[in-house]
Amino acid sequence: MADENLYNSNPTLDEIVFENRNKEYGAYDLRHQYSKILTKSFLLGTALFLILALSPFIYLTIKRLTAPPKQEVKADLVNILDEDKIIEQPKEEEPPPPPPPPKEEKIEVIQNVVPEPVKAPKIETPPPPISKQLETTTGLQNQEGVKAPAYTPPPPPPSTGTRTSTAEVKPQVSDTQVYTEVEQTAEFPGGINAFRNKVSNNFDTSALEGAEGVVKGEVTFVVERDGSITDVKVTGANSDFNTEAVRTIKSIKNKWAPAKINGQSVRYRFRLPLAMQPPE
User: Fold this and answer.
1) Closest by alpha carbon to 219, among 273, 141, 165, 145?
2) Helix 239-251 crosses helix 192-202 at what angle (to 10 degrees)?
3) What 8-state DSSP symbol labels residue 110?
């Protein structure tokens, strides 16, 4: 009884947690046996680690102990019998070389060569100075006579007192041709973004009911010399989109700044990609 009171006076954490609970449940037993299990696991893990670490040394020791003893072989010197010496036969004497042929005596010869004629060097006369050449006519040989200048400069043109200037002629541009490449393109008041906003605000998207995804097409029209828009065309897969896009472009009455070539207004074909989202 005294031991039970002493045990209850210093309860453990497990006793506090599982107070007034079923201690026969597995959780209490696991917590109660935790320290013992941890110690056993540590000792078992240490033993396995030592076995794995020392296994190479143990294997080498066992292999060395079980290895068969080495056998020593005694090698005695063997007397080597002298081989019979080979008796060399005397070489036959070679015949003496034949005597050299007698030298032929050379006949004395005196050189007698006709010398090759050499042309005398040509004496070149240096050309006269430029001042002398302007005084008379030049030729291949000197000749005495009356001096006649070889070149007489033409008289200067009469001065009229007016300066002549070449005026730059600009190529003429056509009034009826529609150009696709110009020096200055046509511009909408406020820029191309302002034109896109007008098209987007005036476009009736109800014409695209039933279409799936974004509907795309390309708008082309001619900006006339006075800034008006003509020949509006739309190429696209959706016919309703094409019709509504033509109507929208024609409804915009703002004048464009016409395109120019050499400073002259020309007709210009404008291209604009267009895409619209159908109503949800």
Assistant:
1) 273
2) 120
3) -
CA 117 to chain centre: 74
How far is residue 247 from each of residues 21, 39, 252, measured CA to CA in Å?
Answer: 86, 90, 9
Collapsed DSSP state (helix, strand, coil) of residue 11:
coil
* pLDDT per residue as tens, the chain (280 positions): 444 444 455 667 666 666 666 666 666 666 667 778 889 899 999 999 998 888 888 888 888 888 887 777 665 555 555 555 666 777 777 788 888 888 777 777 666 655 666 555 555 566 666 666 666 776 666 777 766 665 555 666 665 555 544 455 566 788 888 898 888 899 999 898 999 999 989 898 888 887 788 888 999 999 999 999 999 999 988 888 999 999 999 998 889 999 999 889 999 999 989 888 888 7
CB 277 within 8 A of CB 214: yes
- Cα(225)–Cα(233) distance, rounded to whole angstroms? 19
